[in-house]
Design a protein that fits this description.
The complex is a heterodimer of chains A (645) and B (87). By secondary structure, chain A is α/β, with parallel strands linked by helices. Chain A has 24 helices and eleven strands. The chains are: A alpha/beta (645), B alpha+beta (87).
């Protein structure tokens, strides 16, 4: 707070002709009224006089500071007058007073009153300063004397603080700004910000940190903040708007770094040896300016951007579908379980709608992370085509490449846009505006559609081939078939392998024989294991998962029990190389056991809700538990500790 | 030299009246009376110094007396602050 924030030009009167204390007080109050600080003039005067009765506010050296804290004050303010000749104000030192400041403070708990007094006193202790004020000719001059004195004091104060800090700290107070963000935006965003703020305070450095949390950004940096800053610290595990830092020295790092060594970061930021950031519109470039991020870390960041946006759709849709199974009656039509009654059908459809967004959102936000906003549309289109399974022959949809296809769509889509940006760099500046509204969306969508239509038929061919292999196997070892089917269910969760296994099972079901029912049972148990294994692992192996992953863990019990394999997708997408093999083995074990125990199932869907009609139900449960336990154990062994554990 | 830490409990902190009460009570003592607060040292005999310290309610300060009558001065200072400085 500055005195000149409270003392306005209109609140100053110089060379006032006042005969006594009462006249001086009246003049000071009149000035407060003129500035508009008071809601009740007479009540405020009463408060001032009441205060004077308790002891004079003339503190000596010709200075008096009458003050009142009252509900009659609408706005905190200061007024000032000079009476060069001096009047008797019953000063402590017995001398006449010639410089008057009147403080009006609202009747609130705030310490404004005390802070203003403290600031005024700090300045007035310099007698030369007080003398200059009394001699000032105009209100402007009066204000500028205060302003320059205050600036001088603030500088001294800052220098003193800096001197008290360790020798490595800069001598003058540096200004920094920072941004923190993590994929979930719950804990690490704020922990990193707090670490930076605390350390900066200790070092006597000014810092403002923007927290891009899940509830939107807090303490957003203004253009003026960034302009005034000596350097920028970007401690983020996801992509943020970097264009605003163009031309500033920027350090790009992780929240982990900010939490564990804020001092090192601040020292580096204030050292003056920070590379200047030049915004190019692509996020990949931003890494060049600061720490060199590994390819893996960049890919992880893109992936997490997609996964964190997808998660709500999976949870919402999954639980709604589970409710549908809960409310339905499988005895009406086992092959249509989940949509037999109108109420169940309603929930299943709504849940399905939420699920429908899952893959476009995943691909769209991966692409957005790679190529900024222009990537979003291209990724969405690619993700949608992966979920419908468009091909050149059947653009309406044929063989969904599903989850794995959407991952491809996100990354390919993102880099298509990055490529387009490079390709059209030659265009003159005047055509810049046409790129995001025409070139990127048009060419990007076209190219990703071509890519997806190439991928989907390959998936289709794979399907046909697998069906052939499976049909061949069903006459051979039935336990090996169970293991294979279970593993396929877990491999791509709704993708080609999963779909091939499921379609094969429903076809087998249509045969209405014991083998067919056993195949269906093995497939369903294989599809139930992945979410359950993950839910167990988030509880047992906490360190392996991020905070957000742990929180949505229990939902996976519901998903798994309802045979909604998709619940595992966010976890698999975040770390496919470790999660998918674990789930694959777990589901394989469950499928093999189900076959070995001779369990049968006559409904094509429904999870735990159709268990009453499962043949050899107890052993079916054993198969499910064993498979989940194996999957969970492997997750614990294979998965590395979560990067933001 | 003697010193003691104490918490200021006036609702309004060390504003003008408590500051003048305190400084006037300290002036008669011949010893030096200082207040350590927030890393700085203030002369407790100067009302302006005291006010410039911006000591708010609940702040812990250290009163330091150094001189012939330091014991008496410290005793008086603590009594005054404990009694709320006439607020």
């Amino acid at each position: 707070m500055k005195i000149t924030d409270l003392l306005k030009k209109e609140g100053i009167a110089l060379n006032v002709d006042a005969a006594d204390q009462n006249a001086a007080i009246d003049k000071l109050i009149a000035l407060h009224e003129a500035v508009g600080n008071l809601s009740n003039v007479s009540a405020f005067k009463e408060a001032i006089l009441e205060r004077e009765k308790k002891g004079s506010t003339a503190i000596g050296m010709g200075i008096a500071v009458p003050h009142g804290k009252s509900s009659a004050v609408s706005k905190a303010g200061v007024t000032a007058i000079t009476i060069p000749a001096g009047i008797d104000y019953k000063s402590l030192d017995g001398n006449p007073s010639n410089l008057f400041f009147m403080i009006a403070a609202p009747d609130t708990a705030a310490d404004t009153h005390l802070e203003v007094l403290s600031k005024l006193m700090t300045l007035l202790m310099d007698q030369n300063f007080a003398k200059k004020l009394v001699e000032a000719k105009t209100a402007d001059e009066f204000l500028s004397i205060i302003d320059s004195k205050e600036a001088e004091k603030d500088k001294e104060e800052a220098a003193k603080k800096a001197a008290a800090a360790p020798a490595s700290a800069p001598k003058t107070a540096k200004k920094l700004v920072g941004v923190t963000a993590c994929p979930t935006g719950i804990a690490h965003t704020f922990m990193a910000a707090e670490a930076l703020e605390l350390k900066a305070k200790e070092l006597g450095i000014n810092i403002k940190v923007e927290k891009d949390g899940s509830g939107g950004a807090k303490d957003v940096l203004t253009a003026a903040d960034i302009e005034a800053a000596d350097a920028v610290i970007v401690a983020c595990d996801k992509n943020i708007d970097m264009s605003r830092f163009n031309g500033k020295p920027v350090i790009v790092t992780s929240t982990k770094e900010a939490i564990h060594s804020p001092e090192g970061l601040i020292e580096k930021a204030t050292s003056g040896n920070v590379a200047v950031y030049h915004h190019t519109g692509t996020v990949t470039k931003s890494a060049d300016t600061g720490v060199n991020e590994s390819v893996g870390r960049k890919a992880y960041k893109h992936l997490m951007n997609g996964v964190s946006h997808m998660l709500p759709f999976v949870i919402g849709g999954g639980i709604l579908i589970a409710i549908a199974f809960l409310l339905d009656d499988y005895s009406i039509d086992p092959s249509n379980f989940g949509s037999n009654t109108p109420v169940a059908a309603w929930f299943k459809t709504i849940g399905g709608a939420a699920f429908g967004f899952m893959l476009p959102i995943l691909a769209g936000f991966i692409a957005q992370s790679i190529a900024d906003r222009p990537g979003l549309a291209v990724g969405f289109v690619g993700g949608y085509l992966a979920s419908t399974g468009a091909t050149f022959a059947a653009p309406g949809g044929d063989v969904p490449s599903a989850f794995l296809g959407a991952l491809v769509a996100g990354f390919v889509g993102g880099y298509i846009v990055v490529g387009l940006k490079k390709l059209f760099e030659f265009l003159p500046q005047s055509l810049e505006g046409i790129k995001p509204v025409l070139i990127y969306p048009l060419l990007g969508s076209l190219l990703i559609a071509i890519v997806m239509c190439l991928i989907n038929p390959i998936v289709g061919a794979l399907n046909v081939w697998i069906s052939g292999v499976l049909t061949g196997m069903s006459s051979g070892s039935i336990i090996a078939l169970g293991a294979l089917l279970g593993a396929m269910m877990a491999t791509d969760m709704g993708g080609p392998l999963n779909k091939a296994a499921y379609v094969f099972a429903t076809a087998a079901l249509a045969n209405q024989n014991e083998t067919g029912f056993m195949i269906m049972a093995a497939v369903m148990v294989g599809g139930m294991v992945p979410p359950i294994a993950i839910a167990l692992a988030t509880i047992i192996f906490k360190k392996k998962f991020t905070a957000a992953e742990r929180k949505s863990g229990p939902v996976n019990f519901i998903m798994g029990l309802s045979f909604i394999t998709e619940g595992a997708i966010p976890y698999a997408a975040a770390d496919p190389l470790h999660v998918i093999p674990s789930l694959l083995v777990g589901s394989g074990v469950a499928g093999a056991l189900s076959m070995a125990f001779g369990c049968t199932l006559r409904a094509p869907h429904g999870g735990i809700f159709v268990f009453p009609v499962v043949g050899n139900m107890v052993m079916y449960l054993v198969a499910l538990l064993a498979g989940s336990a194996v999957g969970c154990l492997l997750l614990g062994i294979l998965k590395k500790d979560a990067p933001e554990a | 030299m003697v010193s003691q830490k104490i918490t200021v409990t006036n609702e309004q902190g060390m504003h003008m009246r408590p500051a003048s009460v305190f400084s006037q009570a300290m002036t008669p003592f011949s010893c030096d009376v200082k207040i350590n607060f927030n890393g700085n040292t203030y002369d407790a005999k100067s009302v302006m110094m005291l006010m410039s310290a911006c000591i708010k309610c609940g702040a812990e300060i250290e009163v330091v007396c150094d001189g012939a009558d330091e014991q008496d001065a410290l005793k008086k200072a603590i009594e005054l602050i404990e009694s709320g400085l006439g607020d």
